[in-house]
Amino acid sequence: MNIKKLDKRAIMPKYATLGSAGADLYALLDEDIVIKPGETKLIHTGIAMEIESGYVGLIYARSGISLKKDLAPANKVGVIDSDYRGEIMVALHNHGNLDRVVEKFERIAQIVFTKYEKFEFNLVEELNDTNRGTGGYGSTGTK
Questions:
Q1: Which residues belong to any copy of the dUTPase-like domain (predicted)?
Q2: What does the DSSP 8-state code read for residue 67?
Q3: Nearest CA to 95 among 119, 128, 68?
Q4: What residue ranges define each of the domains in the chain, with the CATH number in brackets?
Q5: What pLDDT digit, counting tens, does each position of 108-140 carry?
Q6: N or C: which end of the chain has fewer CB within 10 A?
Q7: Among 119, 86, 109, which Cα is nearest to 23's?
Q8: What is the model's pTM?
Q9: Residues with Cβ < 8 Å from 58, sequence gap 6 or more?
Q10: How far apart are CA 4 and CA 48, in angstroms?
């Protein structure tokens, strides 16, 4: 995958282990920042990507930073389309009750690449019936 550094200080995404599905994304900050409880801040990474057509980059929380610091992407899962060429940024939200610090060059999120399918949408009067039918939230029980 082609990566462009938009700032010479930017850190390339890295897989932490051989079995890692997500590559870590790093904060590109001039100084550490504080995210207050309930606040969201847009964190720069200083990189842009050339994602192959037919793939999408999905930005997920890192389990460590979300568990220990209550910080996770505000939109839960960010979507980076294959035709986007701008800077990859992460909107980090503080879900906790304490001020949290994001340090310069800290690993802030992870990106997973996956194939996707596109569908043609057809307007119909009726949908095929299933056993579940229109049963919604909780309709299949809890156990």
A1: 9-141
A2: H
A3: 68
A4: 2-115 (2.70.40.10)
A5: 999 999 999 999 999 999 999 988 888 777 777
A6: C
A7: 109
A8: 0.89
A9: 77, 78, 79, 80, 111, 112, 113, 114
A10: 5
Contact 30, 93 (CB under 8 A): no
Question: Around Cβ 105, how many Cβ atoms within 10 Å?
Answer: 13
Going by the DSSP 8-state scheme, the letter that residue 92 receives in this structure is: E
Strand, helix or coil at 44?
Answer: strand
Tokens 């904060």 belong to 27
How many CA atoms does the CB half-sphere of 23 hold within 13 Å?
Answer: 12
Q: What is the token pair recorded at 44?
A: 């720069």
> Which candidate, 71, 75, 140, places its Cα nearest to that of 108?
71
Name the region of 134 (left: φ>0; alpha: ψ -120 to 50; beta: rest).
alpha
